[in-house]
Amino acid sequence: MRRTRFKSCFISAPxxxxxxxxxxxxxxxxxxWHDQTDVRAGGSWLxxxxxxxxxxxxxxxxxxxxxxxxxxxxELVIAWARRKPVLAxxxxxxxxxxxxxxxxxxxxxxxxxxxxxxxxxxxxAHASPTPPNEAERDAA
Length: 140
Fold this sequence. Notes:
By secondary structure, the chain is an alpha/beta fold. The chain has one domain: Rossmann fold (3-Layer(aba) Sandwich). 39% of the residues lie in helices and 16% in strands. The protein has five helices and five strands; from the N terminus they run βαβαβαββαα. The protein has a five-stranded parallel β-sheet, with helices on both faces. Helix 3 links the parallel strand 3 and strand 4. The longest helix has 14 residues.
C-alpha cells in the first residue's frame, strides 16, 4: 500500500447520504475520518465541526443530486476558510456555483466502490497539503 501525506479526512455529506464506501476505503488506506455524526449531543455543533475540520488534513465532500445539501455547502465554506484541500464527489446533474468550480471534483456516484477508490487514489497522489497560494508565499 502506498503511503500518503494525508492522515485524516473530514467527510461532509447531506444528512442520510450513504458514505459507507468512502469510509471503508479511507479505513483501508489507514486514513482516519470524521463526519457530522461525531458531534456530541449537548455540545456546540459549530465548535465541534470547526475542531474536526481543523484537525483534518483534507475534506471529502459528497454532493448527490437528490439530497438537500445546505449543510454541505456551509461545511465547504469552513474547509475553504481553513485552507483544506477538498475532494468533491458530485451527482451527475448537479451544477456548482461559479465561485467554487475551481475545486477538485468528480462526477462519480459515491456508492461506486471502484470509482471512489480510483478518484481517491488520484487525489492522494497529486493533492498538496498546502494550498498553492501559501506554498508560493512560503517559497518567497
